[in-house]
Amino acid sequence: MPLFDFPLDELRAYRPEPDEPQDFDAFWDRTSEVADRHPLDVRLTPQPGHLGLVDVWDVRFAGWNGDPINAWLIAPAGASRVGCVVTYIGYHGGRGFPHQHLRWPVAGWATLVVDTRGQGASASASSGVTGDPHGSEFGHAPGMLTKGILDPDEYYYRRVFTDAARAVDVAASLDIVDESRIVVSGHSQGGGIAQAVSALRPGVAAALVNEPFLCHFRRSCEIASTGPYPELVAFLGAQRDLEQRVFATLSYFEGMSFASRAQAPALYSVALMDTTCPPSTVFAAYNRWAGPKDIEVWPWNGHSGGEGYHAQRQLEWLSERFGTG
């Protein structure tokens, strides 16, 4: 895949204004108030010790509307008061298996790996076990991106972002976790979720945001040729009279708006040949991030980004700030 977006020097300066509704903050304050009517109801079930150097718990807690959300908690064996990386999953994926998430425990951190409701049932993705019991009155394109798209209150990602924010509350409630060292992390959809949670939970200590999805929606629809954004294009192509309502809903979930409210230190990554989360959409959010920030640029890669190289950079970056977990 050749370079297809703006040159890097233009990307570093690219800072479009989001089409932000006046009640953006009020919408999310109201969302939090509604969600908080339900106690977290955290339930931890220890898992068999097949991984001798770590402890594993199956976690269930109450997300949006009290719906059960599943996660793994994985920590160094016998850990006490360690930092925790709350990990969000890419599109279509689920929490998978504990052995797939050992990087942070090996580095001395706990990790809380959070299922994304309604996902994890695709043959090409890691498995998940969390459903989404909420529908919408209007049909949606295959996938999750247009589910409830005509009403911000009913939109799918209102529930997902709320689940994710409450996962930070779960981590902070755990005896083995040092609540002053909670980091949010994710790639693609997971990166977009981590970005939103950094604004919704300003107490997080840091954010690791890799090739984030859910940023600069209109440009993403115009130039992304792979991945989930074409679901929006397909919907708009069929429902030609609904463009204004669709983008009005999406304005409440815009990554640029969340980034401008996030204060924690952040390490981003971007791949310049990424046709799924185009680099201009990543920089549109990164350039508005309000806290301290760094970005790693992978010029010759698509949506996979830096993979192991960037994982090493994340370990170094967190170690510089917090030492080991």
From TrEMBL:
Per its UniProt entry, which superkingdom is the organism in?
Answer: Bacteria
Q: Where is the active site?
A: 188 (nucleophile), 274 (charge relay system), 303 (charge relay system)
The entry's protein name is Acetyl xylan esterase
Q: Which organism is it from?
A: Stackebrandtia nassauensis (strain DSM 44728 / CIP 108903 / NRRL B-16338 / NBRC 102104 / LLR-40K-21)
User: Per UniProt, where does substrate bind?
Assistant: 91
**Entry-linked InterPro entries:** AB_hydrolase_fold, AXE1_dom, CE7
One of the Pfam families matching this protein, by short name: AXE1
GO molecular-function term, one example from the UniProt record: carboxylic ester hydrolase activity
Domain Acetyl xylan esterase, residue spans: 1-320
What processes in GO biological process is this protein linked to? polysaccharide metabolic process
Q: Output the PANTHER family linked to this UniProt entry.
A: CEPHALOSPORIN-C DEACETYLASE (PTHR40111)
